[in-house]
Each structure stands twice: as structure tokens, then as C-alpha cells.
Amino acid sequence: MFKRVLLTALLDIIFVICQQQPESDISYEFSSVFVADIPHVKLKMTIEASPDGTTLLSFPDEAWGQENLFKTLGRMQLLNVEGVVEKDADSGRVVLMHPAGLKELEFEYFLKQDFEGDISTQEIYRPIINSDYFHVFSHNLFMVPENAKDSMDIVLDWTSFSKDFTIHNSFGSKERVQLLNDQDMDLFDSAIFVGGDFRIYEGEIQENKISLATRGEWIPFKDDEVFQVLEKTLTCQRNFWDDHSQEYFTVTMQPFPQENGSSFQGTGLTNSFATSVSNNSFTDIGQLVYLFNHELMHNWIGHTITNDNEEEQYWFSEGFTEYYTYKNIAKNKINGLDGAFFVQEINRTIRDLYASSISEVPNAEINYDNFWSDYEYSKLPYWRGALFAFYLDQKIQRSSNGQQSLDDVVHHIYEDATQKGQKLTHDYFVDVITPYWEGGFESIFQKHVEEGKKVDLVSLFEELGLEYKPESDIYELGFEFTEDRKAIQNVIENSKAWVAGIRQGDEVYSRSIWQGNIEREVELGLRRDGEEFQVSFYPVKKADVPQLEVSESNLETLGF
Ligand SMILES: [Zn+2]
Q: Domain for residue 28, yes or no?
């Protein structure tokens, strides 16, 4: 008799334990609800209450270039106690007022998409919530207590969604209950959460999980092509850095409609890369190969190896990333691209740099203001840095008879970054490369990085015995707009624009210009003396810009 009672009691206890939520500092329960036919995500959060009766939750009204994010908030209420909920968009917080001395608060809020129609590039960083799926970044999904510790135990409960509604995010895939123990809150705040009709592709690299989550009907490529590119890219990059420390990594890729041209937006986040890609015939897998290789390379160059002074070292974090994007793609034949691709990309980079009107401005002029506002400044560190890396790589290989290369230098930098927390400063870079360099690297660095002078590619090509053409077509628009871009300010005489008939003072009523692209015609609709006419021309000029031949001998010399 006694035994049976004990057994019953034990069962009861077990039953109670199973019903309980796991211990956590914060728990979020998600569900899908409709309010007046509008789909919402409902979050019920359980947190510790502030003893003084005012609990502050942070939820930014402005983030990632988006404003008025409070417009995505719907109904909010305290569930376990009477109280008042106040929104304070200016300070980016929601204030919960409740009786003092309370232990725990249960609070729910509704989140919705606050724009109508198709997504465009403007709205990618706002919550997307419809009856098929949701796509939301952490900072716009979670309200977090303002006094949160640096790391917390978090429970995410998705059990109320139907089984065929895929749940996928920076912290796991297809898990209905996620326990994030001792979760760093900064990393939690920088994450992507998707759910719904996403398709998940999974693989393993040395027992570490990788995945791709995508949805919609892709026009330019097939899911498995994309996943193959991702898997190969990650494998090659991790092998290159000998770094297989990331246990879980995912890429989310959502399509958006776009009529003309292609565009990509991508954000590196905790354990993940979230990207949105135009879904049309202008977009192709080659662009994705570049995007993945460049962006995922930042995991090491830029993220692990950090710039000491952001823009000042963009020649390294963007330029070297660019160089290793081309080199790794070609060395590993990602998507079938090989040494010819490498040569073509080096050639294009040379043309881009030589065509730039600011190709030789000092490094110090690449600063926050002009980098983010001026196209040429925003590109300069990529071009200059990539060609500098190419130059260093070839010189080091040459002087060491192929025993060493720039790879050894960047591995050295990576080791110092992980083991000593070394940041990338200019003095450090000079120091680290000196053992690999034959004589006086400091003046080389001074001239080509600090002062911004172009490296002498003709001498380099001669020295290495590379076949090249000394002249090439480079981009030249040939005219300037007036400040309001409604008329022609001036035209370079005898340029292609001039030959096409454009003259100073012409009014411009339509235009199509692919900046920096010599393969696309410039098309202008002009008005002169009340008469409208159209002109089109290729924006090129011949210039002393050396270009490598794609020849077998060159590929061999360059190590392909
Ligand atoms: Zn980059």
C-alpha cells in the first residue's frame, strides 16, 4: 500500500516536471495569430519583475537604417497582473508598470509587418510577416529587459506552430523548443529568425553543421546549386584558415522581386549570414559565388582580425578580403571558376582603379564621411587593397622561390589575432611582413598604402615574365551632370560622349548609366532648343592600363 502511494507520488512529480518550462531568465513563447485578418506573430514573454514596480524593456524604434519600428508593434498586455504598458519610441523602450515586490511578469505583445505589397530593398530590414512565412531580425523581434545581464538563459518555445511550419534561425534549425544557455546577449541581439515555407538544406563540414534556408520560386538558380556553392565555399575557407571551430552556421536567403538589374543584401550575424537576393533573370549564380566568398571571408578578415581604426584599414579588411575571394574561388574551382577567372578579376580591378578619378588619394582621405557617401571612395580600398595584396603575394612567392606566399603572412596575422588579440595596425602589418620581404618594406607600405600611389604593375609583370597588354579600354563617362543632375555641365572633348553628340547645356530627361561598367551602353534622353533626342554610347577610353593575358604560361606563373 505504502509502495503504491510512493509510486503515484513519484509519477506525479515527474509529470509536474515535464509540464514545467525549463529554468530560464527569459522565456519567449511564439504563436501565429490574425488580428482583423492581418497576420501577426504573438510573443508571450516571462521575465523577472523589477522589485520597484517598473520593468523596462528595450525595443529600438530605429535600427539598421530603418525608422519607426514601433509601427510594427500591435497589442500589448500584462497577463499575470494588473498594470499599465507604455510605449516610448524616443528612448526605444516599453515600460511595464505593475505592483512592486512581484516575482515574475508575464507579458505578451503582437508584431506585424507594417508595409503592404512586395518587399523591396527598402523593407528588407523590417519584419516580414505574412500567412506563408516570417523573416525578422532579433532586435525587431525580441523585447529584452533593459537591465539584462551580459549573458542569460533563454528559452524559445515554438510548439504552437504547426509541424509543417519550418522554424529556423541563428541558433538552430527545426527545433520546437530552443534552450540558449548562458547566451551572450550581444550575440542574441544580432541574429535572424525565419519560419514558414522555408526549405532547409543541411550538410556537415568536419562534423560541424551547416545549412541553407530559402523559400519562394527562384528564377536564376536552383536551391541545390546554391547549397553546393555555400558548402564548397565554407569548406575551402575553413581549410584555408585551418579553423573548424564553428559548430553551427546557416545562411538564410529570401527572394525579392525587382524589375531591372540585380541586387543583393547580406548581413553577417551570429552563426549566420542573412541575405536577400533579387529574383529575376538579371541575377545569376556567379554573383552569389562572389557574395558568399567575399562576405563569409569577413568571418576571419574583419571579424577575427579586426581593424584598429575601421576605415583606415579598409585597404586590408576589404582589399585583402577581395583578393582572397578571387584567389580562393579560383584555387578551389568553386562553381567551375579557375585561374582564368582570377586573371580576369585582377584585370577588372586594375581597370577600375586606373579609371577612378581618385585612384591616388592618400589613405587618410578614406574616412567615414566620404566612404559612406561617395561611390569612388567606397570602392577605392577594395581595388587598391586587392591589387596591393596581389603585388605582395607575387613578390613574396618570387623571392622565396615559391616556398612562401601572402597566405603565410595572413595566417600569421590570424594567429596573432586569436592568440594575442592583436589588431591590424599599420606598424604591426609592416612588422609582420618584414621577415617575408627582401629589404625595406616600410617605404613600400608608405608609398602604396599611406600615400596611395599605384604599384608599378608593368615592372612587376616584366619581372615575373607575365604576358600583358600595355593598353586597355577603361571606363570614362565623358561628361558631368549639373548638381541637380537635370542637365549636362560639361563634356570632355573627343570622348565617346562627345562623339555621341552630347554637349554642354543639354537638358537630361531620362538616363540609364551603369557606373564603372564598360560593357553597358549609357543611354540618355536629351532636350536641346526644345527638341528631344536620344543618344547611346559605350563609356570607354583607351588608356595605359596593363592587362594580363589569359594564357597558359601566365596561369602557370601565377600558380594555377
Ligand atoms: Zn566586404
A: yes
